[in-house]
Structure formats: C-alpha cells, structure tokens
Amino acid sequence: MKSVNIGICGLGTVGGGTFNVLRDNAELITARAAARLQVIHVGARHDSPACDLAGIRVSRDIFEVARDPEVDILVELIGGTTVARELVEAAIIAGKHVVTANKALIAEFGNEIFALAEKHGVEVRYEAAIAGGIPIVKALREGLAANRIEWLAGIINGTGNYILTEMRDRGREFADVLAEAQALGYAEADPAFDVEGTDAAHKLVILASLAFGMPLQFDAVYTEGITELTTQDVGYALELGYIIKHLGIAKQTDQGVELRVHPTLIPDDLLLAEVDGVKNAILVEGGAVGPTLYYGAGAGARPTASAVVADLIDLARADVSARLPALGVAIADLRNVPIIPIEKVKTPWYLRMEVADKPGVLSRVASIFSEQGISIEALIQRAPGQGQTLVSLIVLTNKAPQGSVDIAVSEIEALETINGKVTRIRVEALDG
Ligand code: HSE
Fold it and tell me: I want to staple 246 with a disulfide (CB 3.0 to 4.6 A). Which of 142, 160, 370, 393 is the partner?
C-alpha cells in the first residue's frame, strides 16, 4: 500500500485536532484513502500537550516543512494572511498539495494561490475554511455539480449566531454574550471579525465563487455586522413572525450577483430559523434539486479536523487525471459576473422608529414611503408607557431597493416628530 506523507504547520486547536483525528481513526482513514496517511513533519512554535509527537520531525521554522522533500501534502493551520500566504506558495512551488482551514487567506488571495497551484499541477483544498465540519465545498463542487445554483443563504458565523440566540431566548445584551463566546473559545482571535461580519464575508465569497464559477471578490461583499442589534428589535421581529439571523447571502440575478452579509429577518417557520447557538447551516437553492440544507458544527477542534482530514483522504486517493479545479471549473473558465451594488438590491425591510405620540405623525411617515414607491406590508404601533411621549413604530415594507429606503429614512430622521435614528434590517423569505 502506498504512503502519503503529511506535514502539519500549526498545532493550535485545529492542528491538534487534525493530528489526533488522523491518529485515532488511522485504520478507517487508511481503508478509505487506500493509502497510509502519515504525519512525518510538524512545524509549530511550541509542542502541544494534546499531541504525542514521538518519532515525528518537529521544526520551529514552519518553512522547513515546505522545504521537506519527503512531504507530499502541507496542511496550513497557522492562520493569518501574510506568513500563511508565503508558506502556502512555497509549498505549491515545491510541488506539494496544500490543505488549509484559512478562510481569510482563500477569500483574499485565493485567485492568485489557485492560479499558482494550477500552474504547478497541485491542488489546494479548503473544506475546513467554511462552516467547520459541514462538507459544503464538497456539496457545491461535487454533489450539486448538475445544478445552476440560484442562491444560497447561510448562518456561517457560530459566534454571531450564539449571541443572537442568547439575546432572543434570554433577553441578554450583546456585550455580555460576546464575553461568554470568547471565554468558550468560539470567537476569532479578533472578535470584531465575528461581530462585524468579516468572518462571514470571507466564507460567503468562497461559497459564491464555488456556486457561480466566478473569481473570488472579497472587496465586493456588502458587510454589516450584528453590533447594532438590540433585544427590542429581536422581540418585535418575533411578534411579526420572524427570527433575526446574521446571514451571508449570494444570489444570481439577470443583472449580476448579489453578495451580502447582514442581519436578516427570516420567517420563523423555516428550518434555518431553528439553527441556534454556535451551529452553522447553509441553505442552497439548486435549479434542479430545489432547496437543500447543510447543518452542523461550524467550528471546534474535531469538527474542523473532520473537514481537513476529508481533504487529505481525497488528495491521497486521487490520481493526477482526477484533479478537481479549486473553484469547480478551470481558472480560464471562471465568469466575470458583475456584483450588484447594494443600493440596487431589493428586499423587504423591517424599520423601527421612535415617534412622538401626536396626530399626523403616522400619515407623514406613510407619505414619505409612498413618495419613494415603498409599499407597507404590516405596521405595529405600541401605546406609550405611562408618562412617555414617544412610541415605537415598526413598519414591515414590501420589496424596495436600498437606495429608496436610504432616502426615505433620511427624510424620516429629519422630521421633528422622530427621535434618533431609524433602525433598519432586511427581510428575506428564502422561498425560491
Ligand atoms: N469564529 C468562527 C465562528 C470560527 O464563530 O464561526 C469558525 O470559522
């Protein structure tokens, strides 16, 4: 039986998990790969107490792994985009396949990295970069290969989803829950990446390129985080029959592709609305298959290792003629589809404003919507509390472009009878 030699760079949570899953499941992995997958070289700044490195070459300089002529596949698990990019490129140039869990690296530099890999006849695999253990890359690239993907919508940041779930179920405030998510080890090194949407944007870009066969365009994603959400809005959404989720949405339209990450009201009877806590899920609408939903652990040592090892098994099994293009089609066949500017993207909207409890206020607000061609779907107005002069007015609109909503909101905010800013959150029915 052939042996495939593996070098692992980075022995943190995912590196340690990968090392141990390879060891714990060695027998079944060998059977499935029809090869012995052997870790022969580890590059890490420190040893890990969770890993028995006896008999394995260990280098403090990770580039030693890329230079090791005996390593067939380099596993990059150091994170970041500077050293990680140099390492991955060095390995490719040295003729090694690469497996990575690094979403930022692929989203921001994937075009260059994949082109380099194609030139050197090696593969770069990245299943673990998106939604941890969920085999979504395999689903899009292989399982759904017969479909024209119409759109996909995903809960692809576990930390954000955990925060929203706690706010909804326990009425807890944002900062309080974030501190807990950090303590539990779900959050990124810089938690701003989680709560401001960058982490989800990285993952969405990769999903969109796989789904639509286009180059990775991280700079084109419209990104909004969850930092402005309040328990009040979470509660009003519930009353209207919606759950607020932080979604990454990629949609193919006649004008181009929508690429956006933002809080979204979704109907509370969708399966996606029931994805709570740190779990991830991606809903994919395939032209032939219809909607399919992929659910599971989006982070953590062993779930992410599961995806890394699946890539290793695939690489060990494939022969050169069976190489899979990184984004499903050869780089020369990627389509340069325009990304639709966010101002032109049409969705229904949830809008909340604090208004004076006086005659004529509602009709003035309604006429501003009407002047912008925005139609109102539903409306809630609460009676003012004792001694209060302001009331919350919640409006659910029909589909309207962000550009018209921007104008309406700025006119409403300029009214003397309105207090403060208008809160606005997009709504998605996700029904085809
Ligand atoms: N910080 C990420 C999350 C980890 O919370 O989903 C997995 O990418």
Answer: 160
* Ligand 1 site-directed mutation target among 196, 199, 207, most atoms within 8 Å of CB: 199
**CA-CA distance, 111 to 257, in Å (whole number)?**
18
Could you read off the pLDDT of 118-174 as tens digits, one per residue? Answer: 999 999 999 999 999 999 999 999 999 999 999 999 999 999 999 999 988 998 878
C-alpha 103/C-alpha 288 separation (Å) is 29
Please tell me if the domain spanning 137-297 has the same topology as the one spanning 343-427: no
Domain boundaries, given as residue ranges, for the chain = 3-133+301-333, 137-297, 343-427
CA 199 vs CA 34, 99, 162, 174, 193: distances in Å: 35, 19, 15, 18, 5
The identity of residue 376, as a single letter, is I
Please name the amino acid found at residue 372: Q
Q: How many angstroms is it from 33 CA to the middle of ligand 1?
A: 28
Is residue 118 lining ligand 1, measured as CB closer than 6 Å?
no
- Whether residue 186 is predicted with pLDDT greater than 80 in this model: the reply is no
Set 138, 203, 245, 251: catalytic member:
203
- Looking at 159-173, 368-382, 395-409, which range is the least confident one? 159-173
Give residue 305 CA to ligand 1 midpoint distance, Å. Answer: 14
Q: Which of 240, 239, 242, 258 is nearest to 250 (CA)?
A: 258
CATH topology of domain 343-427: Alpha-Beta Plaits (3.30.70)
Total-model pTM:
0.92
CB 281 within 8 A of CB 275: yes
Check whether domain 3-133+301-333 has CATH 3.40.50.10790, yes or no: no
Percent of the chain with pLDDT over 90: 84
The yes-or-no answer on residue 245 being catalytic is no
pLDDT confidence of residue 330: 87
Distance CA(8)–CA(6), nearest Å, equals: 6
User: Spelled out in words, what is the top-level CATH class assigned to the domain 137-297?
Assistant: alpha beta
